[in-house]
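Input (structure):
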């Protein structure tokens, strides 16, 4: 049964839901707002990250610092990366706050995904005591000590949505807690979610509108630029009114409709947030107005992800005996993930420092790779992979780069070009780690047919004839 709490404000009771961002906790509702959120009475501090991560403590390791990029309600947003995202097991953070058992609370946050992302993100929100047994592992496996934590909700983010303010309203704490924890539990290697403007406050408005039980819902079929929408709203009351918002500025003010099953022609290919609001009175005297809003990202074919500019991204190194000192440069880099190609060194084989040093386990040649994360356009987070050979056993400064594959275009549709310095093999791996395409390539430019690949994000692995290995991220739309 799909149960929801409806917030009673004055005489208007409102819920909103967004496909792809779904609260799994029953008897809960949430909504979004398109502008920067105001939060009088916020129980949390520095929730827009204008002061970096001041007042916040990392939970389960590294949280990338805020990214300064204006995009909807994301300004200084924080990137929470997924479980299995090297080198961490899910980014998270927490803040101390006094939560009183029996009181009712609302929590809101602005959320968005990188443009072109296809991975599902699970963001968990918890209230917890200071019990040391409350860990990332114990929360995701439900093995935390009894009475030490309580799940507030899980947000599932499935589309590169225009950043919006989502709220989980009307949560009643079962007991006293001393902190709130937010983390990404997604089991993907490339997934991430952007978060900003967190609002957590107490409210006395927990009056339900359960009897009306309005549940807005619709499906759509897109042909070219035209979409046919089928209203499938359910309710225990009659005489519902419908309001559609297609959010197509080029068609404004005609990008709305009050029809039950409208047909709408969009102005151009793209991703549009389409919302249906169903409204009706819960009582015969028309005193209590209830409404439910359902939104979905409608994809009109033809949109391409924005390109990423790799200018200025690089690293250099100096070697002394078995130790190499690395220096990374990037105009806007905010996350640096190193793989020193030295598995015998154990956990020291990776680093998240911008300028690390590494003691190699033995003399030899090592393929050192750096993944730089930096802001792109339209709120995207770009990544650039750079690999170089480091020779241990003799003095070496700035050795030539590994013959890395140059892929253009990236993203691509059915055909792309791969340029390498040496002949070798190209392999494509999907987000599940399964190889889905392989091809031998020659030195120089190679035209590659990728029409058999499903749209998505892949890791492209290039193995040269000399055994050098490099990899990069590749997207197909």
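Output (sequence):
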């Amino acid at each position: 049964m799909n149960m929801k709490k409806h917030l009673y404000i004055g005489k208007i009771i409102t819920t909103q839901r967004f496909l792809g961002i779904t609260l799994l906790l029953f008897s809960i509702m949430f909504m979004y707002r398109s502008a920067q959120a105001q939060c009088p009475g916020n129980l949390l501090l520095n929730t827009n990250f204008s002061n970096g991560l001041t007042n916040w403590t990392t939970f389960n390791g590294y949280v990338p610092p805020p990214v300064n990029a204006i995009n909807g309600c994301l300004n200084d947003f924080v990137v929470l990366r997924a479980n299995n995202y090297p080198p961490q097991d899910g980014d998270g953070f927490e803040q101390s706050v006094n939560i009183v058992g029996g009181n009712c609370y609302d929590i809101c946050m602005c959320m968005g995904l990188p443009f072109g992302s296809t991975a599902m993100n699970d963001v968990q929100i918890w209230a917890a005591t200071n019990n040391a047994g409350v860990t990332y592992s114990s929360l995701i496996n439900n093995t935390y000590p009894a009475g030490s934590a309580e799940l507030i909700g899980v947000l599932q983010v499935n589309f590169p949505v225009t950043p919006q303010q989502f709220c989980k309203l009307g949560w009643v704490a079962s007991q006293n807690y001393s902190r709130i924890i937010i983390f990404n539990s997604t089991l993907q290697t490339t997934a991430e979610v952007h978060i900003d403007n967190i609002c957590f406050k107490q409210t006395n408005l927990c009056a339900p509108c359960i009897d009306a039980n309005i549940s807005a819902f619709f499906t759509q079929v897109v042909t070219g630029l035209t979409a046919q929408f089928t209203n499938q709203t359910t309710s225990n009351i009659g005489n519902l009114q419908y309001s559609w918002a297609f959010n197509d500025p080029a068609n404004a003010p005609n990008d709305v409709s009050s029809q039950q099953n409208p047909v709408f022609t969009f102005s151009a290919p793209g991703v549009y947030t389409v919302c249906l609001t169903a409204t009706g009175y819960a009582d015969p005297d028309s005193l209590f107005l209830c409404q439910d809003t359902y939104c979905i990202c409608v994809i009109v074919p033809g949109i391409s992800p924005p390109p990423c500019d790799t200018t200025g991204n690089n690293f250099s190194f100096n070697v002394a005996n078995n130790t190499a000192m690395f220096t990374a440069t990037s105009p806007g880099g905010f996350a640096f993930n190193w793989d020193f190609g030295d598995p015998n060194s154990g956990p020291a084989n990776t680093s998240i420092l911008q300028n690390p040093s590494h003691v190699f386990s033995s003399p030899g040649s090592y393929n050192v790779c750096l993944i730089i994360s930096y802001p792109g356009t339209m709120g995207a987070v770009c990544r650039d992979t750079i690999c170089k050979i480091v020779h241990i056993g003799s003095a070496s400064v700035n050795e030539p780069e590994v013959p890395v594959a140059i892929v253009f275009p990236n993203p691509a549709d059915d055909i792309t070009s791969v340029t390498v310095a040496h002949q070798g093999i190209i392999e494509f791996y999907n987000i599940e780690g399964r190889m889905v395409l392989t091809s031998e390539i020659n030195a120089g430019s190679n035209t590659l047919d990728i029409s058999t690949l499903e749209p998505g994000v892949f890791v492209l692995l290039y193995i040269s004839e000399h055994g050098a290995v490099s990899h990069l991220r590749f997207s197909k739309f």
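Notes: The chain has four domains: 7-203, 218-300, 306-402, 403-477. The domain at 218-300 is CATH 2.60.40.10 (Immunoglobulin-like).
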